[in-house]
Amino acid sequence: MTPVLYDYWRSSASYRVRIALNLAEIEYDTTSVDLLKGEHLENAHLSRNPQGFVPALDIDGQTLTQSLAIIEYLNETRPVTFLPDAALERSRVRTLSYIIAMEIHPICNSSVAADIMARTGGDEAVRVDWMKTYIRKGLAAFEKRLGDGQGGTFCHGDAPTMADICLVPQLYNAERWGADIADLSRIKEIAENCARLEAFAAAHPDRVNAAG
Amino acid sequence: MTPVLYDYWRSSASYRVRIALNLAEIEYDTTSVDLLKGEHLENAHLSRNPQGFVPALDIDGQTLTQSLAIIEYLNETRPVTFLPDAALERSRVRTLSYIIAMEIHPICNSSVAADIMARTGGDEAVRVDWMKTYIRKGLAAFEKRLGDGQGGTFCHGDAPTMADICLVPQLYNAERWGADIADLSRIKEIAENCARLEAFAAAHPDRVNAAG
């Protein structure tokens, strides 16, 4: 059975899984779950993920959810190295990944941002400031962490890992919301190296949206 | 060298790591980083974790940060089973863990809650409502996920895993903020089973604070 990814072009958790599937060279079909139309809250999708989040991935006879759990699963079952072999190095890659996946992404979830607007009675400017604030804060922390002496083409060494898979979609969001990250030079360099890889380029929201 | 945990009694990420160290039967020393006194933003702590978060753990000649990265590291280097062996089961445990660690905890971080108060111009009631809303929402999702046919004494089978290590500190927070979770019967049952284990009981904030 060909794996099926239930995703939304602009969702950064979906974007992560698209990159991972591409890096793993796994052929997959895509079913779009349109968040703007509320399709994620319809029964068809809730049966895949009771939380209503995208992505969900049908693979190996199961439906998996949570992008990082999917990436760890692929790392354990496919010939990829989304995490290095040594435990201390794996810890470094997970720490970098979590700075984005735990400390930026959930706070900037669209439903949380909408809640901020509702609670403040504010308009779009409130949302934009919220996004810019937390994206900037988190990516600055990420850059600091990168700077702990382990150089390389990517976040950890010379091959992409889970950290790069988390970073690139977050940078798409940074650009979308206009977060000020021009000074984060190491991140910028890594992003350029990722963009040169077809696995990353093919997963880009604009490519997916144009193809959709 | 005896490992050193830099923690704060009420921090739920610290609480997670205390449980994990206890379950792994690792002897460790504790240095308190008092968040109320701002000690996490002093150079001594920033040198351990540039993000200023607790916990940090000195172990095996390195300083590790991010509670879930620490738990995965212990699972990889010590004779514990914070994750089951089979990849699909590991994915289930990670998914449950992330529902708490990614979708409740960061949104209810004290600095985010303080920001909500500042942006709304609201008082303590605003903070309490924020906490109750997101804790309830996340734990209800967790309960739904638990209900997918895999019973047992704990979240996954009859031994505690990373999911239980994430759940128990979140329940402490649920009680602290008065979140309405009385109907989540499976969670309640698991929490009672965890509380009977000394590894969980000894990590409880009240025990740590009293000993401190």
UniProtKB/TrEMBL annotation, chains A, B:
This is Maleylacetoacetate isomerase. PROSITE patterns: GST_CTER, GST_NTER. Belongs to the GST superfamily. Zeta family. The keyword Magnesium does not apply. It holds the Pfam family GST_N. InterPro entries: Glutathione-S-Trfase_C-like, Glutathione-S-Trfase_C_sf, Glutathione_S-Trfase, Glutathione_S-Trfase_N, GST_Zeta, GST_Zeta_C, GST_Zeta_N, Thioredoxin-like_sf. Residues 1-82 form the GST N-terminal domain. One of its GO terms (molecular function) is glutathione transferase activity. Gene3D superfamilies: 1.20.1050.10, Glutaredoxin. Its EC number is 5.2.1.2. GO terms for cellular component: cytoplasm. GO terms for biological process: glutathione metabolic process; L-phenylalanine catabolic process. SUPFAM superfamilies: GST C-terminal domain-like (SSF47616), Thioredoxin-like (SSF52833). CDD domains: GST_C_Zeta (cd03191), GST_N_Zeta (cd03042). Keywords: Isomerase. Residues 86-212 form the GST C-terminal domain. It comes from Hoeflea prorocentri.
